[in-house]
Amino acid sequence: MNGGSRGAVAGLVPHSGSLRWKIVLLVALACASMALTVGVLVHDSVLRRSLHEGAGRADEALAKAMEEAAAAGGDGPLVSPAELPDALLRQIEHGGAATFYEDGPPAPVFWAARKEGGKLYAVETDMTADLLTRQALDRHMWKYSLLTLGVVVPATALATELPARRLRRVARTARRITAGDLDARTGPVRGGDEVAEISAVVDSMADSLQRRIDTEQRFTADVAHELRTPLMGLVTSAELLPEGEVTDLVQGRVRVLRDLVEDLLEISRLDAGAERSRPGPVDLADLVRDSVARTGLAARVTGRGATVVESDPRRLDRIVSNLVVNAHRHGAGPVEVAVGGGTVTVRDHGPGFPDDLLAHGPQRFRTGAAERGRGHGLGLTIASGQARVIGAVLEFANAPDGGAVATLRLPRDGPPADA
């Protein structure tokens, strides 16, 4: 089964949390309630009519029997009190004449009785035909109510499929925007209903967010470029200062400022998609050892055999060095770097990554709690951006026994063609 078929089947499968199936269930309950109400009302109305007509027929039969008996000179339909139902006898004692319905067995009958001259006269009328008619009517009402439900429920499910599909389309667009795809749009939606309004609002929100981010990226790039020229002059001037404690302090601050501007320029290039991978064969273990050595920081590197990967060595070096520097700056020793297969893991034994970073990923100018050390929050942001350029996945987690763990997973087939 292909993807389109799976999607179509998934759209028809009931889901307890789906608005579409809640509507179908509501319509089914409404139809069932209406059918039950109408059925009870019709049944009660037909029963009252049947009893009324039965009482009339019984009275007519009693009157006719007494007339025929009088014409023939007989006593008419005399009965013994023992032959009549007790409820009918009580009614006769109060009113002298009464009718009573007895619902069998062996068959439903309607009694009509009258007391004249101390004598008791009564006849019974068979109501079997009326009972069978009511039963047949009840069966037909149940059958056609179920048939109506069998038509209405599928028709409602089909009628709600289009708005449900449009809502799922809006939800997919919102999820793509949440995942970082700011070019995702719902697109034009026909109709002027609430779904079309939601679609338009989501697209408008995405456009507004895209404009804000573009403005921020342009501002970051412009500031970094504008600072670069005077900063180079400042670096040169600081190097010409006479040796001394103040000179060392000034040169140290200038280097920090230079690194910050270079990081901002790199982030602006990553945001603009201007970075391109230049892959080649790389001995991963040797590259990691060289990267750690260039940081000048202590870290124990372990590797399981020689692994040659197809990747961009400069960007790999940038990722590994940033991870090691971040582990020392915001974590605690010992820092361990493990190389195995196409995976590089950097772990420290500090307080671990903050919950916000684990939930949303690294963000520029955000370093978590103050006790995690100094920094601008750019190192992990750059590492994540460079990982995307080479088609790698950079994951962040906290070890069960404490410490932050950053895992770089390189693609098996090298960077993607559009990296």
Automatic annotation (TrEMBL):
E.C. no: 2.7.13.3
Name this polypeptide is given: histidine kinase
Pfam family, one: HisKA
CDD domains (UniProt xref): HAMP, HisKA
Organism of derivation: Streptomyces omiyaensis
Swiss-Prot/TrEMBL keywords: ATP-binding, Cell membrane, Kinase, Membrane, Nucleotide-binding, Phosphoprotein, Transferase, Transmembrane, Transmembrane helix, Two-component regulatory system
Membrane topology listed for this record: Multi-pass membrane protein
Domain HAMP span(s) in chain numbering: 164-214
Annotated Histidine kinase domain residues: 222-414
Classification via SMART domains: HAMP, HATPase_c, HisKA
Transmembrane helix in keyword set: yes
GO molecular function terms noted in the UniProt entry: ATP binding
Subcellular location(s) of the protein: Cell membrane
Source superkingdom: Bacteria
Catalytic activity: ATP + protein L-histidine = ADP + protein N-phospho-L-histidine
Transmembrane portions of the chain: 23-42
Matches recorded under InterPro entries: 2C_sensor_his_kinase, HAMP_dom, HATPase_C_sf, HATPase_dom, His_kinase_dom, HisK_dim/P_dom, HisK_dim/P_sf
